[in-house]
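hey so i finally got around to running the thing on that chain from the lab meeting. sorry it took forever, my laptop kept dying and i had to restart like 3 times. anyway pasting the input first so we r on the same page abt which one it is
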Amino acid sequence: MKDCETVHDLDQELNTFIQAKCLIPGGLGLWETYFRKICRAWGHIDDTIRPQHIIFAADNGCNMEGYVGYNYEVTQKQSRNMVLGHTAATHFCEFNHIPYEVVDVGVASDDGIGVNCKVAKGTKNILNHQAMTADEFEYAFMAGRKRVAYHAEQGINLISFGEMGLGNTTTSAAVLSALTGRPVEDTVGPGSWPNKPDLMKRKLDFVQSALDFHKGNLDTVPHIIACVGGFDIAAMLGAMIECATKRVPFVIDGFISAVAAACAVHMDDNVKHFAIPSHHSRETGMEIALNEVGFKNQDVPIQAQMAMGEGTGAILMVQILKTTQYMFVNVGTFAEMMRL
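ok and heres what got predicted. didnt touch it at all, straight out
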């Protein structure tokens, strides 16, 4: 279908299109909101959502050196498990006929796992080093852009994001505090740890110490991610920027991808027109990250207290979006009903 020349033209077309349907005006709430947003992102009304799920996998130095989290080798094993289709997210994809890929941007393994875009075998420990060099940031950032560009060329018109990497709630909290100026108490959550006071204090102290160590170098999004972020965040950032460039709407998953989206909006405010939330993760900083993208709690459809990662919430949202897109396009009109 031909793109409308202006947003105003498309909004008028959408109003005419929806008002003719045999639906209660506004009765579908957020699903109409996101149907409209997807069409605005495309610049036209399309019959079908053609999705792709991308999982960025990487290890983090803070975890590899044993400062936070569990055995870092879990990242490698679970990434291989995802390639084989044996995880929660990949079963969600399989059941809902959503293609997926695992993109290795920094797993601590000798070989590439899935799509090999490995920058290095994990980042450095942010407590006493930059996580990555400027060149490594650029490589991960461009890897994300290239994956989106590739899928857009194949006709994909909706992308969802997931991640895999032990320690990435720690790096994400550090990035979010650096980006917003919010105290670590507002951004650090338990992640996959048991929510115990002694473990939380250890994580809070770690993130605060890392931010103190890099103070003075946290002036831009690339510098923030290079200092205290992860390769997964850098790659998702690039992917989201490319989604806006290619006019492909994308679905945010949980805390890590919400932080990446917040970074993307800080780099390019236009990104917010292509972002769609899926679920409200139980991680502490989730609401802050989504607010930075322009979403309030009532804009987030799935309230399930999830903290699985891999894009599980995003995949569920994609399936709902596919369902509602099909309905809006195919549901009958009032004129057709009156002829019965």
